[in-house]
Structure formats: structure tokens, C-alpha cells
Amino acid sequence: MISFESDYICGAHPKVLEKLVETNMVPVSGYGSDPYCASAAEKIKAACGCPEAEVRFITGGTQTNQLIISTMLANYEGVVAAKTGHVSTHEGGAIEYTGHKVLELPEKDGKLQAETLNKYLKTYWSDGNHEHMVAPGMVYISFPTEYGTLYSKKELTDLYGICREYDIPLFIDGARLGYGLASSSCDVTIQELAKLCDVFYIGGTKVGALCGEAVVFTHNNVPKGFLTQTKQHGALLAKGRLIGVQFDALFTDDLYFEIGKYAIRLAEELKALFIEKGYKLMLDSPTNQQFPILENSKMEELKKEVAFSFWEAYDENHTVVRFATSWSTQEEEIQKLAQLL
Amino acid sequence: MISFESDYICGAHPKVLEKLVETNMVPVSGYGSDPYCASAAEKIKAACGCPEAEVRFITGGTQTNQLIISTMLANYEGVVAAKTGHVSTHEGGAIEYTGHKVLELPEKDGKLQAETLNKYLKTYWSDGNHEHMVAPGMVYISFPTEYGTLYSKKELTDLYGICREYDIPLFIDGARLGYGLASSSCDVTIQELAKLCDVFYIGGTKVGALCGEAVVFTHNNVPKGFLTQTKQHGALLAKGRLIGVQFDALFTDDLYFEIGKYAIRLAEELKALFIEKGYKLMLDSPTNQQFPILENSKMEELKKEVAFSFWEAYDENHTVVRFATSWSTQEEEIQKLAQLL
Amino acid sequence: MISFESDYICGAHPKVLEKLVETNMVPVSGYGSDPYCASAAEKIKAACGCPEAEVRFITGGTQTNQLIISTMLANYEGVVAAKTGHVSTHEGGAIEYTGHKVLELPEKDGKLQAETLNKYLKTYWSDGNHEHMVAPGMVYISFPTEYGTLYSKKELTDLYGICREYDIPLFIDGARLGYGLASSSCDVTIQELAKLCDVFYIGGTKVGALCGEAVVFTHNNVPKGFLTQTKQHGALLAKGRLIGVQFDALFTDDLYFEIGKYAIRLAEELKALFIEKGYKLMLDSPTNQQFPILENSKMEELKKEVAFSFWEAYDENHTVVRFATSWSTQEEEIQKLAQLL
Amino acid sequence: MISFESDYICGAHPKVLEKLVETNMVPVSGYGSDPYCASAAEKIKAACGCPEAEVRFITGGTQTNQLIISTMLANYEGVVAAKTGHVSTHEGGAIEYTGHKVLELPEKDGKLQAETLNKYLKTYWSDGNHEHMVAPGMVYISFPTEYGTLYSKKELTDLYGICREYDIPLFIDGARLGYGLASSSCDVTIQELAKLCDVFYIGGTKVGALCGEAVVFTHNNVPKGFLTQTKQHGALLAKGRLIGVQFDALFTDDLYFEIGKYAIRLAEELKALFIEKGYKLMLDSPTNQQFPILENSKMEELKKEVAFSFWEAYDENHTVVRFATSWSTQEEEIQKLAQLL
Fold this sequence. Notes:
The structure is a homotetramer of 341-residue chains. Chain A is an alpha/beta fold and 341 residues long. Chain A has helices spanning 14-23, 35-48, 61-72, 86-89, 94-97, 114-126, 153-166, 177-181, 190-195, 226-232, 241-250, 255-276, 296-303, 331-340; strands at residues 2-3, 54-58, 77-82, 102-105, 135-142, 170-174, 199-203, 213-217, 280-281, 289-290, 292-295, 306-307, 309-313, 318-324. The longest helix of chain A is centred in the C-terminal third of the chain and has 22 residues, at 255-276. In chain A, 59% of the residues are buried.
């Protein structure tokens, strides 16, 4: 059985695991105050080219989104997001659980358009009843998006410009950031991205770690009482080292970026393979998630030998499915799949 | 430098780590649906002697307390706990964050007394204004308590009897359960404990795991929509295997219980050492946390060579400190300490 | 100056006020336990033809929506509503504040279509990832809607049928119920409406009271701990009599229904007037709110002599505005307006 | 039947009701933007001698406490209150519902002692683990307290001094403020009180209004987005005039203060009566609530002719009960009671 089910099917990248083993018996203090977290934070700041940033480590993606959004919004504010955004649909209402509305806007291929955002903000502020409505207090986008698509540098610049104009922070969910940055379609570097938002996170869980996301507050803008708020959310890890050690490994010798490149190369092979074999793709994804449309009978047949994910029904006889590559995907798996298709 | 700072200063017990390494490249599905979680759950149910139980894995202690309490209470109910309970004091308001009051009662050496509980419940229900007050909907105790003390089987039986009488669940926080069960003062087995409550958790973070707690719903009483609620709390790990694998190792060949015994043996040595050297202890703790009272000048001197925790000021010239043992404590560290005292 | 600004511009209907004056010095117990609340509840149950109902009195509309929705949903559930529903847009995020998502669906003239609801529920339950999503736990509609439109008996029957099929309650917001029931386009009686939902409220604030809404749980289905939850929301009035007395008056001699008829007659005159004078209406509202489209210059001119509300921009030169009638609207105001148009 | 059951047994003071009747048909805008609210606010600012204050009107006491506390605290902060404070015990967990802990401290006769507060704050800030604990972000006291007692000017000055030192606001719950200020034991004026806190409210519900409390932010410190937050809490009254008109009447010709004096005079008669007849009082209350200790048999006998409230059991044969006077108490009721005792 080969698996393209998701980008979190295996444990940790061997170099990450090695570092965990190597540091296992070194006693350190808890709650993120250890030297591994400190070292990882320094490396991340260097990689992002923003010495004035502050870095915090959180266990998982939904938890990170919930924590960042709820600690940066005022009580009466909501977060603006694409209708297809992870926070809008697939987090079990984690944002609303903290008392804040997700203000959902239409999108295109998973991307929030600058024009859509601008029009919404303008309409809100010119509405005579706006004080009876949830105030837009932050913008959330994901990079890559839930559909594997990427914002161009121009698109990010436009979105951030609007956020600056309306004085609300832009938050980039980078659960799969490594796979986005490594795409040949990506025209933005991590340093540039860090300058085009107020806070973003570098996903570890899907890019080589057992767990963990690194939040980068780009300009010394950690919310007040952040450690207490992390605890209050049940998100403060006693052994903070667990994430610190892993990110320290991921940001040594560009491992994080190498993982990205590796998975993207395999994703491109995958994509070429589907096209070559005559399959249609739901959209043209430039990153590690590919969305071929399979005939239902073919899908059932394939399932016996390959793990992949259901995405959505296409029509009565076809289904959109998702194939994901990651650091753990093997070249041979692609070859095996080629034979099966 | 030797360290008794806490029971979470090192990584994972070598056998746990080994299992993580060994299973690292096996692809599995996410969110706790993998075979490691299933296997660990079966082993835990067997160890607890309750086949009708259901087991869920959560990343950390505060998160577990928050999730269990908020999913088991009705909106208008609060959780009853000792004033010194972890949920009352040291979780940054994580329970209140979910909208529920912690109904704090007086305690003795960290333990909630049956009589105190009974009187409180009786007074509440006979108060003509009780509908204007938060209803007691659950009782929380920790085993061992935050002071390292243990409830006897009789005390647990009495508390649970009261809970049954008032038809509210009893929840036991077992963050350090392994160290409690291994104490020579403990007169209850894990099987008995499982029968004397509605839900409890077996702490992993402090007893050999990198992270993770195993929640045992003792009689098929998982709250409705629990997976969604876990997600909603940001507490659903994508790589659920991370905790499953670890608990699978901890519940193989009685490792969890062996770890407990090992740390308790060293804690007893530690205790004997303090007494022998003429130190007073804040209270007589039968578990892995010891609370000697140090003269401040001695404390400062010791700090240079030994890591331990501040607990509370005793008087102007003395301080209560905490020394903890765990699976990672070395015999030599005790010997070294003996020389220093 | 004449005013059509809203249906809550004046105090209370004279008969309501009279009853307040008349009962003013009678001492009664607090928190809704008084004989006026009891009498009003009986009269409402009789008027609704549902003896098995339970009635509770709440101060305002948003408060009522918040309380009903949050006490009837499970933690992990959200409420389904039209995108234009009051709870979706104009309550400052009051629903999300309680931790629940408003699951917004497309609408037609402010009405949620049965087909739309059915498709949404079917898709949700057939989605393999639905446990990662907020579960639809209730349906909210308003009668009349925010656009003044009405559901037909068939539409209500269809919606309620779907709710029954998926076993979720249907909640009808009747902030302007009196004006809906009195419309010549309304083909449902209050008795029928009570049978086509699980809970609804009879709006007082906009239909002759100083404040107050009467919630009708149609089949003995008051949420557990409701009084405590009302207190917990800050929604329990010490002088519960204030609302009880008013609803007692409103449900004496059909006053509530007479108020509705009166306002609807004037609204029809208003509508005829706009049409006669050549104004276009945004939509064909059969109730007490009318939405003419005014040229901006005309609008500015009118404003000097008539109070009305901004609704939304129509195009660069035109604006949709709202004119509302109520029990307090005077025949002469319509005549005065006729001269001005 | 005569009644001393509470201070909210009747409707509104005749002059308040008169003003409601008089203004009933004047059309005004909603949500507190009307001229009555504006006028009442001006009169209150003048009476308090603080022109830089801002005044907002809220419907009830618990709602006011919930709104003020949750809008003034940061996410990770709690409110410090006496264990017997209304927010601690009798609001159904309304504060916790907003996600904030009530940090309960010991009290004396219902009053929070400056020394107790100071010690608590000092201990909190010097605790090495304070970041794991809820931060004290506000102090709540009530004037008069739930036991009818009063803080002296010195006590208020001391408490406020500590709040200033720790830079946290002091909030005074004045649900019965009028009865406190009118007491012969009160050594503080409303102007002085306004200078000794950051926010307080002037209770209307218990002092002559049908409903309503006037919140005074003493130095232009209304929380950001307050109107939206009021809406979000379901606390924004459509007919804001209802409260505005009433406070306008209460602050015309010193009516609010006259009501206080009247009720206090009768309370003193009541107190003298109990003492004269040989009853013991639970404590020496200088305000409108008196707490005699009755023999149970006497209590049962009295109940047939007089309404009063159960307070708490005293011993097996005695009960503490509460008798309250208010603007609506009649001189004859005291005389009738004298005969019965």
C-alpha cells in the first residue's frame, strides 16, 4: 500500500527525529523557556530576515489560528477570511468558540481578492448601522491556500496595503508554508512574506515535525499577556523543548526549505503523471496538494492499492480527490502509482 | 549541574523514544484514527480492568482539564474543586475561559474532604436562591494532589458516594498518576480508581512521554460530539499517532508502573536525605514531589549547583522549595545532593 | 416633523401604559414569579392554542435570540440562518459571543428556501470531514423577515419538515410577529405557526410595549436550568412584572392583533402612496416596513421634514430607505407625507 | 398583607412613572441616542460633579456588572471581589460566562479590606509562577454591600490608592447607591465617590425605576467599541428612552436622593423596632436592608401576614431573614409590623 493521503501520515523527518534523540536526556526548564526554543527562534528570525520579530511555538494549526486570532482581536471584532478558509470551515468553530465571528468573503481558487476585501471594508465603515455589526479587526489568509494555490507578491502587497489603510493586522496561516515557498510559481521569499504581514506561522506538523508551528510576530507585536493566554487556551506545552528542538533542526542547514523542494518536485511529477494519463485536475495547484478528478469506478479500484483523500463530489460519476506529497513521500510511490493509473 | 526542578525536565523515557523511532516511517491516518492509538487504548483498558471504558488522547494537562470539564458540564454548571486544585489556581483561568466557574472549597493538605463537599452540596441545594447561583455539576480532584498527597481508598469511596448521591460526575486529574500509584502510602490500584470515578486521565507528560495524557471515560460516557469539541478547542492533534505510539510503549510490559516505582524510590531517598540532614518538610508527601524548607542563604548557595523550584515563602528567612524526581532522575544526582546539603 | 424612522420610536401603546400605571403600587415577588407574568403566559398559551407550551419573558430581541440559541444548541453546534438574518448581521456577533457559529445560507428576499436548507444539511452529513466542521444544530428564521417578507404556510411546513427529518429545532424570531400576522398576504395563524416550530417569540418592543419579548417553547421544551442561564446572560429582570404586565395588556381583548392590523393598514396606504407617486420599491413588502428607492437629492429634501432610515445605497444617485409604521403612526403623518412626495 | 420582601416589589416611583406617561408619544431615535438619555446623562454628570465623565444606561444589575467587567478586563485578567460579592455568588456565573475568573478574597461584614487586597496583589506579583495564574485586572466592590454595610471614605481612599498603585481600575456596584448615600453612617458624597473609583453605577431598579442602571465612567474611559459590545451582550435596548426618561426624572429635583432618605428613615424605624422588641440583628446594617434573627416558630407565624426574605439558617431554631425598605414602603406597614412583633 502506498499513501498520498495527506502530508502528515508519517512521524518526523529523520534529521528532526535525530535531534530529538540527541537532546533527549538534557534537563531544561519548561514552558518554552529552554535553550532549544531560544536557538530555534534565533534561527527563524535570521531566516526571515526580521531581527525585530518575536517567535512563539504552538502545538498544532487550529490551536495556533485560535490563539493568534483571539489574542489579537478586540472583543467586538471578527476576523475576515475567505469562505473556503480553514478557519471558516474546518476547525469545528474554534474561532467562534473564543467569541469572535469569522467574517466570510467570496474567494477565487481559495484566494481572497484585494478588491473583494476593499469593497467589504469600505461598505462596512460607510454603513450607518456598522456599530450594530461585528467590526472587521483582522484579515486571515493561508499560504498556500486550502486549494494549494498561492498568492503572488503583488496580491500580498495589495492585501497588506488595504490592511494598513484600515489599520488591521494581516495574519498568514502557513501550515504548509514550506511547500508554498518551494513552488516554482512562488514569487515571494520568506523574508518578503514576513514584511507583508503582521503575524504568520511556519507550519511544522505538515513539513517534517511530529507536531508544532512557529508563530512569527513580525514587528515586536506579541499580544500582552501572551504566555498566560496560551496557558488559558490549554496551549502551553510543559515540555516546550519538544517543539523547540524540532524547529531548531528544521532551521539548521535549510532543512525546512529542502523538505519543501523535495515534496514539490514529487508533486510536479504527480501532476505531470495525472495529466499524461489523461486525468483532469480540479484546478491548477502549484504546490504539494493535487486534486485530480477520478471516475468513481476507477477511484474504487485505485483505493485498493493507494491511500488518498476524498475532496468533494464532482458529478454523479466523478469525484475530486486529493493526493498530497511531503518529505516522507518516496520516489517509488510515484512510480508505483504510474503503473496503477 | 543536577536538576530536581520538575518531573518534565527531560525528553521521553528511552523505551518511549525507541518506539517513536521504530514507527516513524509507517504511514497512518490522522486525528487519532491510527492503529497505535487503538492499540494503546486497548492496553489501557486492560490495565484499568474496565473493558467498557473509552480512551482519548490529549496533548497536555491543562488542555485535558479544560476539555473534559467543559464538555461534561451543562452551561449553567461549575466544577467543584479544592482551593489549591490545579484548575483553581495554575491554569491561567482555562476553565473560566470556557464559561464555567470553578467552585473552590477549602482543603486539607491539598485534599478535598468528603465532609466539606457534602456540606457544600447540601447547602447549595437547600438555598432558596440557588437558581441564581452556579450549580455544582462535577467534582474535580487530583491524584496525587498539587502537594504530592494521596487520597485513600476510603476517601475516594466517600467522595464518589457523595457524587453518586447528587448525580454529578467525579473527575480525577492524574497528571502524576504513575507516581501516586507507586507510592507505598497508596492503598488503591488503578483498577479500583477507575471504578471510583466517572472519568480520569493518566498523565504522560510527567511520567515518561514527550507529551500526552490518556483520558479514560470509565463507563462508555464520552460526551456527545467529542471529536468536534476537541477540534473546537484546538486540541485535536493531526498526528494523533504521536501520543498513541507513546502510550502504547508506556503500557507495554508495565513500563508506566515501572517508571512510577523508580521515581518513588528516589523520592524516598530524597526525603530521607532531607530529614537526615535536619531539614523540615512543609508536609509529609508520599509521592515524587518533596517540599523542604530551606534557610534563604542555604537556598541561594544550593542554587548554584542544583536546580529546584520555588514553592512559597515560609517566613522572612525561610522558603519552601520543591524537589521532584521522575524517570529521568539519576541515582548519582541524589548522591551529589547529599554532599551539597 | 413626522417620523417613520422605525417601529420603536414611541413609548408604549396607551392601553399597555395604562396597565402599568394601574398595577404600579401592587407589591409582588421578583424575577418573573409574579401573577402578571403568570396571567400573561396563560393568555398567550390560549391565543396560540397550545396548552402544553411554556412562556418566558425577556427584555429585548437580540438578548432573546442569544439566549434561545445558546441554551438550545450543544457546544459543538451552530445555528443555520439566512445570510440576511438578524442574527447573521445586525447583532454585533451576539451569537458568536456565546461560542456558536451562525451557519449562513443564501436567501431569497430575506427568506431561507427549503431546498437550500435541505441541500446544505444533506451535504454536511455526507461530508467525510463533517466531524471537523460545526454541526448544524438549529434553524433560525424571522417572521416577518428583515426585508418585511413573509413565509407562506407551505414554506413553513416544508422548512419544519426538514428540521424534523434532521432532528433539529426550528426557531422563529417574531420581533415583528404582530405585523406579519396582520398582513393580507399572511396565510398562517398564530396557532398554526406555533405548531410549525419548536420555539418562537412574540415581539413586544416593536409592537406596543416599552420593552419585552415573550418566548413560547411550544411543547414543554424549556432548556434545563433556564432561569439560571437567563441570569448568567444578565437577562433576568428583577422586576419581571414590567414585561408580564405589558404582555398581559397586549393579550387582553386581542390588543396585540389590533395593533398589527392598524399598522398594516397604514403601511398599505404608505405603499400605495409611493407607487402612486411613481417611486420604485426595492421589493414588495407585505408588512409594516416599506423600502422605497429615492433619488438622493429628493432624499435630502425629505429628510428635513420626515424621519426615516437609510437602508442601503442603490446606485450612485439613488438610495434605498426604510419607512416603518407601527401602533404609534398617525393617519395625519401619511397625509403629510403625501403632500411632501 | 404587608411586604418588606425586597426593594423591587413595586413598579416605579410616581414621579418616574409620570414622566414616562408624559413623554410616551414623543417619537425619538433608538439605542440610547435620544434626548432623554442625553439630558439624564448631563444631570448625572452635574450631580456627580464630574463633567469629564461619560454615562451609559443599562437595563439591570447583573447585566451591568457583566458588561463593565468584561469590557474593561484584558482576556487574561480576572476581577477581584469579596467572597460575598454579588458577582462572586448570586449572578449565576455571569462573569465566568464571559471568560473571566472572579478572584474571591475574604471579607469582613461584606467589605473587602484594603490590607487583604494589598497582600493579595503583592503575593500575586511576587509569585514566580504568576504568568500561569489569572492576573488581577480590576477590583469590584459594592456600595452598600450585599450585607447592607458601607465603606467609609477612608476605606474607599485606601482601596483606590492600592488600585492606583497596581494600575487597575476600581469598579463600584451601586445597585442600592441611593440607600447608601442617604445613611447617617455614610461619610462620603456622590461627588467624592466618583473621584474614588474609575467606574460605578447608580442603581435605578432598586431605587425607584421600573428598570435601569446608570453607569458612570468617571474620566472619559468608556471601553472602545462599547456600543457594539453592549449589543453583543444583548444589552442594548431598542427603546433606550425607557431608561433615559426614568433617570431624567430621578435626577430632577434630587428625587434620587429623596428616595434614599425616605427609605433610610423607615429602615431606621424598622431597626429600632426589632431592637425594641428584643430581636437580635445578624449585623448592624446602616442602610435599607435589615437582618433580624427570628425564632423559627415566630418566623412561620409572621409569614402569614408579612412578606420578607429568607437569608440564611442561624441555628437549628433560628433563621436570619431580610427586611428591606424602599421608596414604596408605607409608614403604615411599619406600624402594622410593630403590632405583629
